[in-house]
Amino acid sequence: MxxxxxxxxxxxDEHGYVLVSNFFSADELSEINxxxxxxxxxxxxxxxxxxxxxxxxxxTDKTKQFAHDxxxxxxxxxxxxxxxxxxxxxxxxxxPQSESVCHWHQDDAYYAxxxxxHTRMSIWVPLQDTDERNGCLWIVPxxxxxxxxxxxxxxxxxxxxxxxxxxxxxxxxxxxRMKAGSxxxxxxxxxxxSNGNETDQIRRAFIVSYQEAxxxxxxxxxxxxxxxxx
Length: 230
Description:
Blueprint: H1 6-15, E1 17-20, H2 26-38, E2 52-54, H3 61-67, H4 70-76, E3 84-94, E4 102-105, H5 108-111, E5 121-126, E6 137-139, E7 151-153, E8 161-163, E9 174-176, E10 183-187, E11 192-194, E12 203-211, E13 224-227
Antiparallel strand pairs: 1-10, 2-3, 3-12, 3-13, 4-11, 5-10, 5-12, 6-9, 6-11, 7-8
């Protein structure tokens, strides 16, 4: 099973993220999409959590298998250690012609209120190709090195614990265009955002956040140790 190369690990450490292409097959993506089409996915249609389906890894056997996949764990095991546990999982759906914006934020603005972690990170797996038109992620490379920043609470859009755009430098922000089946690994402190979906097609992203197994809790019952610390 594949692990991060030396160059990929260096990129993650320096920039706070790394993109690995062609990680999942087209057949695997079709199975997940069909699974999501065939169940009553509780996607919120408006408000602060528009488009989010929480506890995704607990919905069905297939979504659980996806989050627990040994290929993912092998890929992240040099980053998340000692051991690997799930902090939380979710599906982010950008509905067709959605204007919903996920504000610039850091995941640890939410996660650190539950528990601290030294290695917490997330995988972001698009189930459709993503670019600027349908709401790909935007990231500020290297921003994770500045630690957890103050935030303000927005009254619209999602990811409302937002960075103060007057106080942070977003000039180096760049879009992360991804093909379906690629996997993005990113630090819980990286500054990131996404815009709306201008297309007539749905855009889904499977997101799982992992942390070292020595951290005793996660997001409620979602917390599960997949690889104990040795």
